[in-house]
Amino acid sequence: MADQRILFAKYGTAKYISHLDLMHTMERAFLRAGITIRHTAGFHPHPYVSIPLPLPLFFSSQCELLEFGLVEGSTMEQLPEQINKVLPAGIEILDCYEGGLPFRKLAFVRYAITLEFDGDVAKNAEESFLELVSRESFVVQKKSKKSKKGFTEVDLIPLIEAVEDTQAQGDTLRMTLLLQAQNPGLNPAILLQGFREEYPQFSVVYSTCHRVEILDEEKKVYR
Q: 101-149, pLDDT tens digit by residue?
């Protein structure tokens, strides 16, 4: 049986829903909408839903993907409206379609990031950030449950595909970054934490990270 995929957005108060809770929310939404989906095999079958690139907590997105197996109760055209009626605020189904590229082809993620500083220092912060990402190496410590030390050291520079745009005005710096998605991927929160530690003079009072697009190895929109 071929699998189907959903393209959905996550924003507003839904940014505070964890990945695990999101999975449960989606499973319940299918049930509430009267849509039967494929279940796993074994003694304790559960609904098959898979999100290939979990969105970090507090991030928003317009390009999240979920794979499932439709059995009965809907069509590709009807499903978005049916599911949207039963989803919580801030989660919105944008499209539903058959199949798609293998998950291993998922290569890059485009993020829109906004940083607000304590004071009109955005221009200086922009220059410092561009200096940081132009280095040959920038190693940070990343938490790891597998390491006896509790962390591993990661060089972030190879994981930054491109700084596509930066705009600094007053106390606000806006950036568009293209980052490696997996094997390994780069969570922009780790990059921003490294930036704060490297340049503590720039006090960030508010920040947002928004996932804009997921791209394949050829930098085309991944579906």
A: 999 999 999 999 999 999 999 999 999 999 999 999 999 988 777 777 7
Residue 188 pairs in a beta bridge with none
pTM: 0.94
Nearest to 128 by CA among 197, 181, 199: 199
- The mean pLDDT value for 38-54 works out to 91
Handedness of CA 30, 216, 179, 176 (dihedral sign): negative
pLDDT at 2: 63
| One-letter amino acid for residue 132 of the chain | L
Local confidence band at 152 (pLDDT 50, 70, 90 cut-offs): confident
pLDDT of residue 1: 47
Q: What is the dihedral of CA 59, 188, 173, 162, to 10 degrees?
A: -130
Secondary structure (H, E, C), the chain: CCCEEEEEEECHHHHHCCHHHHHHHHHHHHHHCCCEECECCCCCCCECEECCCCCCCCCEEEEEEEEECEEECCCCCCHHHHHHCCCCCCEEEEEEEECCCCHHHEEEEEEEEEEEECCCCHHHHHHHHHHHHCCCCCEEEEECCCCCCCEEEEECHHHEEEEEEEEEECCEEEEEEEEECCCCCCCHHHHHHHHHHHCCCCCEEEEEEEEEEEEECCCCECC
Q: What domains, with CATH codes, occur in the chain?
A: 4-100 (3.30.70.580), 105-216 (3.30.70.60)
